[in-house]
Amino acid sequence: MRIVGGLFKGKKIIEPKDKETRPLKDLTKESIFNIINHSNKFSINLEKSYVLDLFSGTGSFGLECLSRKARHVSFVENYKGILPILKKNLSNLKTVKNYLIIEKNILIDSDFLEKNEKFDIIFLDPPYKEKDINKILNNLSKYKTLKPDGIIIIHRHKKEKDNFLDKFKIIEKKKYGISKIIFGKLI
After folding, report:
1. Where are the alpha helices (DSSP H) in 57-176?
2. Which end of the chain, N or C, is more open, meaning fewer C-beta atoms within 10 Å of its C-beta?
3. Global pTM exceeds 0.85
């Protein structure tokens, strides 16, 4: 696993040894960033973006954003088995300081969203077995976490049948291997 574009292109990302974390594959990540940069369905300038990486794991998505000059990335992760790897991956980008690690479980403690920056991109990559995505979407809506022209990107298993809230409007869906990527907005 590596960073696929930007300032740190080719830099290796430390992967977990356990099976509790499912890192975002390079091909899927590259496809997501191609859509962010070239879609005519939404307009995101990554270099001016504030990014919220929920269920960060190794930090693969947020690291890619930092490499591509995102203004700031907030990593949200609470799994003690992966936090040291996330911190090490970030410290390996020696010159990068425009990030924050929030050690919280977004499903249990989402109040920090109220005090946080508003975001242009929210990447939501829960464990495939997680069924309560609507609770997270409700909290993102409640705290107005997404900027009006921002996007939410959800990574799910391609066979998962999610029934999203009416306030989540799907803009685009793509499948890559066993992954399904959903681009949407809160309305």
Report:
1. 60-67, 83-91, 112-115, 133-142
2. C
3. yes
